[in-house]
Every structure is written in C-alpha cells, then in structure tokens.
Amino acid sequence: MSALFCRKFVSANIGSLLQKRGVSSKVPHFATLYDLNPAQINTLVKTAIRYKNEVKVQGKKPTHLLPGSSVALLFSKRSTRTRVATETASNLLGAKAMYLASTDIQLGVNESLQDTTRVLSSMVDCIVARVNSHQEIEDLVKYSSVPVINALSDKFHPHSNPC
Asked: In the chain, what is the straight-line distance between the N-terminal and C-terminal CA atoms, in Å?
C-alpha cells in the first residue's frame, strides 16, 4: 500500500514526519528503509495491516484518508504487482493514481529528470518511482517538493518489503 506514505496519511498516522506543503522545506521521502526509524516502520506496518483487514475482511473503504490527492507512478521498469498494488491502494485511500511509463513521458529524451521531477511535483501529491539506477531515486528526491517513494531501484526495494 505505497500510497500510505503520501503526505496526508503519513502526517495523520506518523506524527510530524510530514508537514503540509510549504510549511517545511524538508520533504520526507521513502528512498530506503533508513528514511524511517524503527518506531515509524512499526507504526506503518501495523497501520497497513489494519487497513488491509478493514478492506479485505470488513469490506470498508478508507477513501477519506487521501481525498483529492494524486499519485504519479513513474515506472521505468514494468511490474504487474507493484503497479496494481499501488493503483489499488491509491484508489482505496481516495487518491487518483497516474501511471507514467517510460514510453509515456519524455524523460531523458526531451526533458531532464530534474525538469520532469519539478513539473510532476508541482502537480501531484506524491511520486512513486520504479527505476533502474538508485541514482534516479536520489535525483527525484533532490528535486521533488513532494514525497518520493522508491518502488524499486538497483539497490533498494523498500516499497514492497518494509520489514
């Protein structure tokens, strides 16, 4: 449930980890597990388990957590499970997920990663990226004004394996 890391959810469930846009110049990202402390990881996993139970067992839809939010899914590498899980979680939480494959955007062709990141982060609330090089994640983090979630890089895959 990668959308759980989006600004509104995390600020509501992990205290002051995230501030509303403009309040703080420090935007927390999830590039590696080192971005969260053990208590935050524990809270995140427990909350994800609770929401999964509510959705799968109780049939509840927690769409009130991210209403009106948007999540950009920037995928250089294809993945059925990561894409479906992220889109489903976003929708269940009330956010709109936008899948952007490398064939859909001009990343590295007509636009630099820096330009693309700045444009995306001016229009969305969160960027989930599945890339080749971890340097791409680092560059996204460097230039993004919204949280960036690493959905896979050549060094880390914290998105699908938080423990």
From this structure: 14
Tokens of 145: 């004004």
Q: Residue 148 is encoded by which pair of tokens? A: 């960036």
Residue 6's region, left for phi above 0, alpha for psi from -120 to 50, else beta, is beta
What's the residue count for the chain? 163
Q: What does the DSSP 8-state code read for residue 96?
A: E
- Backbone phi, psi, residue 128, to 5°: -105, 125
Query: For the segment 109-148, what is each residue's pLDDT rounded down to a tens digit?
Result: 677 888 888 999 999 999 999 988 888 889 999 999 999 9
CA pair distance 129, 34, nearest whole angstrom: 17
* Amino acid at the residue 83: R
Each as own residue / partner, the long-range contacts of residues 38-41 (CB below 8 Å, 24 or more positions apart, any chain) are 40/14, 41/162, 41/163
